[in-house]
Specification:
This protein is of the alpha/beta class and 279 residues long. It has a single domain, classed as Rossmann fold (3-Layer(aba) Sandwich). The chain is built from ten helices and seven strands. Strands 3-2-1-4-5-6-7 form a seven-stranded parallel sheet, with helices on both faces. The relative contact order is 0.13.
């Protein structure tokens, strides 16, 4: 794929200290964007920001942020505007997964009725409410520029429905709904909302050792976080003008194709729903 340059673009990536978030944030910097890396892990955040710098790239700035805090979200957006003078792209990647439930001494199993209810609720608040709070804070600034990109990181439909995968699957289904609803509400404003997923288990700390062993036994390999980079660059660029309410699968991106063709190849077919009856 020809290089996509994003010089002058300003982006915020949540959960950028490691994993998918770090890969996407670093990819945006290397494409010339000025990127605010946010995370709740200060030490890992500093390491990720330091590693992102390179010649011909944009600037990388680390700001600690708890996306469940409205004040933190507002502070991050304000500091982004103060540092770079604009905000064009928000990548909602920060999330908590099943591993948090597994580590709780109050979880007897991953069946929903035996899971730690405090952690269960915390995952919902982080993934669903945090995505909302960041988007709610960023969008007014994008609307003033008649341009903006929101990219919500989700997961495959089977993962959303997999046994013993709540609340993580529940939250990702909710984020898909957020994507579709917000895309409609922002139609014709220049601000688009799309979802992006790896297309399989990615090699991050979200995948606990039990899952790693199960995947290895099935002969499945973990995807590198870098599969998210080409599609997020395209979604952040002007090349994706008018594309909204869609799902893109990172592992399906074919770098040998022109960007528009690669995007079409990586776009997941929509699930057809019955006509809206108002309920």
């Amino acid at each position: 794929m020809p290089d996509i340059r994003l010089d002058g673009t300003v982006a915020i990536v949540t959960g950028a200290a490691r994993g998918l978030g770090q890969a996407m944030a670093t990819g945006l910097v290397r494409a010339g964007a000025n990127v605010v890396f946010t995370d709740i892990d200060d030490a890992a955040l500093a390491t990720a920001v330091a590693a992102a710098h390179q010649p011909n790239g944009g600037k990388a700035l680390g700001i600690r942020c708890d996306i469940t805090s409205r004040a933190d979200c507002e502070r991050v957006v304000a500091e982004t505007l103060g540092e770079f003078g604009a905000l064009h792209v928000l990548v909602n990647n920060a999330a908590k997964g099943q591993i948090h439930l597994e580590r709780s001494p109050h979880t007897r199993s991953l069946n929903f009725w035996e899971a730690d209810p405090e952690i269960w609720q915390d995952v919902i608040v982080t993934n669903v409410n945090g995505t909302f709070l960041m988007a709610r804070t960023a969008v007014p600034h994008m609307l003033r520029e008649d341009f903006g990109r929101i990219v919500n990181v989700t997961t495959s439909l089977p993962t959303m429905q997999r046994r013993r995968n709540s609340p993580y699957g529940v939250t990702k289904a909710a984020i898909e709904a957020e994507t579709l609803i917000w895309a409609q509400e922002l139609k014709d404003t220049g601000v688009t909302v799309n979802s992006l997923l790896p297309g399989g288990a990615a090699d991050t700390d979200f995948v606990h050792e039990t899952s790693r062993r199960e995947l290895a036994a099935m002969g499945r390999t973990l995807l590198p976080p870098s599969v998210m980079v080409p599609p997020v660059l395209w979604l952040a660029s002007r090349q994706s003008d008018g594309v909204t309410g869609a799902r893109f699968v990172g592992k399906l991106w074919d770098a040998a194709l022109p960007p528009s063709a690669a995007a079409a190849n990586a776009r997941e077919a929509p699930v057809l729903l019955p006509a809206d009856d108002g309920r």
